[in-house]
Structures
1.
Amino acid sequence: MSVREPFFAHQGWYPASPEACRQAVHEYLSSHTGSVRGSVAGIVPHAGWVFSGRTAGLTFAALADTSPDLVFVFGGHMHPGQRCVCMPTGSFGTPVGNVSVNEAIAHELVSRFGCEEETPDRFQPDNTIELQMPFVHEVWPQAKVVAVQVPPDDTAEAVGRWAADRARDAKATAVAIGSTDLTHYGANYGFSPKGPGDEALR
């Protein structure tokens, strides 16, 4: 099976060595001591782990008592009106092991929503999804994933509803992870209602 290389591990966003990556994941997971019974979805950030790892770990730990067959990961830095992006074949490589794609469901999603297709050898690096894969591997090693970048418009809701219906139809135990920073603040992003000072930092 073809493997998508973990680009951002090699760029220093999270540890590239198996030992250091596994240790970091389990340290972040241990920050939270209990699951949230009945939960099937959570939101995680996607900055470098030195900034976001502990917060992501809280979410994954809260969902850790589930045993999903299927994990949907929704992410992307997109604008309204853009096409969804999905890798429907292969697996996501991580320093701690590979995470396989549920190819049947991913191909259905690509067909249903006209997604731009990536492959393990032809893809645009995307931190929003990649940074979650070591957590997925360590928390749910048996699960397969469907990862999709979605634009911030009605398509996102449609994809989410389709994913829930498809998991139910397949009688799969599923978990959904939404990867978002909620906002990027500053002039570079056209969003600075509190200016650049102390109020902006708060």
2.
Amino acid sequence: HVHDVDFVYYLFGKPQGVYSRGYSKTTGEIDHVQTQYLYDSGALVSAEGSWCMADGWPFSMRYSVNFERASAEFDSSRADTLIVYGDNKSEVITTDKHDGYAGEMSYFIECVKTGQKPHRVTADDAVAGLQIIEAERKSIETGLAVAV
């Protein structure tokens, strides 16, 4: 779920709070989490992550976004991963076929090689992500919305 949190933070910034539900199934830690991220702007943002799917369930990542005049859906398990809908039609958007995690690692290695300080994802971004995750844990434990 840390990657979900990173993605939400990257797109929308740090939320004012979170309301999360979750449970443990296999590890003794929270294995399934569903979070509503609370923004003063009124943006409705939620994410769900799980390690609880049955054996054989393939990894997938998907999201949907509603814009002012269009909606978009990304699904890593489809051949056409990104589709935009609007004006009663849909359009497949061609995306890079590389793995995002591999791209992150490649960028980090390049920063180490060149001695360049990372500017895409910084240590401060990592701290913010951990703060959000800790607020999610506290929300699951208390059943209440928690400020970040």
3.
Amino acid sequence: KVKDLSFNNPVDDINEIVKYMIRTGKPAYITLPIDVAKIPVSKKIKENIPEILDKKISVRNDNKKLVNKLVSYLNTAQKPVVLVGHEIKNLQLGKYVEKFIKENKVPFTDLALGKCAVNEGLPQFIGTYNGDLSDESIKKVVDSSDLILSLGAKLTDFVTAMFTQSFDERKMISLNNNIISVFGESENYMDSYDFRECISELSNKKFNNNYIFDKKIEQNNFKLTPTNKPLTQDFYDKALVNSLNQGETLVAESGTSFSGLSPMNLGNSVDFVGQPLWASIGYSFPAMIGSQLADKDSRHILSTGEGSLQLTIQELGMLLKKHLNPVVFVINNNGYTVERLIHGMNASYNDVPELNYTLMPKAFGANNDQFLTYNVNTEIDLINALKEASLNKDKFILIQVNMKYNDAPASLAQLGEMISNKNGK
């Protein structure tokens, strides 16, 4: 949404934009005439700020009736499953969905785009769903379901393994930010539909759920015995997840990091940030910095490839200027691994310049007592670096992890093959 502000009511216009952002969870852009900054503003404006930022949800009768109708469908389902998506996280509605899931003991899965919108440590969590690339035990529960309650989810290519999901709209009730679809029908439900109101009202409902499902996922706690063997992507992913602590935020760049980390259960009170919708490489580093600034109580852990980092590495200056202390893993494998898997495994155009990332903090002006860097080549190197990172939470940690150019998570190799075949290459 873009709004050009006039000289007439600029304060009201700005407040309107802020309300829009809170209500929809979407970005907004404001074009300000230069003179607006010089207009005197009444100090009483401050009194209105709490109301503008108020996130309380009042549910209208029409949406209460709509939710009651949805619950009637759930009452007749034999094997219902809840699918959670990114809109639940964007609008901070996770607490409502979590309450609904816990009180009804209904199994739930999430898409990688909305990962950790609801606590993955709940016993009802069956794992992150990704179409044909899902773990077989996850697929079994989803495939056998006779009703998928989709909350804030978008079935996009990268989070459904190129649209290989086992279900369609005929057995779905889908609630999204701007539309509702009940078994493929939407127009009969849109008159007064409000996503936030319906999610809030749903949290107060109980339905007849007798579904006993096979519990598959426990919080990942991989049994790792580190050796002096060269580091691999598989060991790296498992060791990184093992090292996560409650309250931390894992940020994964598109490519090997996202594909390797997003399928794993991150357990209790760990957040996850990823961007598979547009898969814009270079996104994760500045996104991690912005997220860390917004939530300084949650230490951020970033996993990124060197090809992606080279697009936005200049933001390291901002990280140091703001005295942030995240942990940044740079996967150094000499190129764009995703592109190698899709086409051109040995093509020179998928190579990137070889940099020494351990020198970067100093090059961007960091003081010696502000950071620590590690260059990791073996499994033992990685475990030691992880231990040091956990002991030095008052410093920015940069860990360069060196791997073979063709090493990638198995799921990414499969996805690369799917895309390559789809493109006829």
4.
Amino acid sequence: MVDSGTSADTGAQVLDDAPIDGVVAVVLAAGAGSRFAGPDHKLLAPLPATSTRPAESVVARSLAHCLDAAVGPTVVVTGAADLDDVIDAARAERSSMRGGADLTAVSNPDWETGQMSSVRCGIGAAAELGAARVVIGLGDQPGVAPSTWRSIADPGPDAPIVVATYQGRRGNPVSLSSDVWPLLPHEGDQGARALMQIRPDLVREVPCDGSAQDIDTVEDLQQWQSS
């Protein structure tokens, strides 16, 4: 979606707020992760336990933080990696919480064409769920806190596009009202960044804690594993 920030892990806990009417969270987890030279896909690489989360994969923790925010139904867009076990485990973990996880997985057959195809795929699934706004994050950013998902998802009126910032730098997630969905590009790898560049009048920035650093390389992973 947008450039990432600095590295920092974050604890997670289920927020007490009720789901936000008309909002669907979207986690993009379809790409090939071609810069990662590890034995498995980067999304399935292991992260150590924290005070609030068990040892789990990169995508499992990213998804857990999104679900902890409890903003509403969640859509995971899959593609290159087989994430069925991760999604099943997330559903099982949430089965006794808030009546269970409203978690939908959609496969993007065009994931190789770039991130925008996954954004479009996620928005399409969210629209079928009745969304008036989507809040979109990445499956390789486990440092995005539940509170960040929540603040970006519920920005108040007159905020067509809302973007998280970390120490003044834009990151993810990004929140998009349905009014701007037709303005998004149809292809490419920039997500909503291109629209924010040409329509800054539509954008509101929200300072957030945590980190939107991607885990793209083995070195990135080792930094997280040692923190």
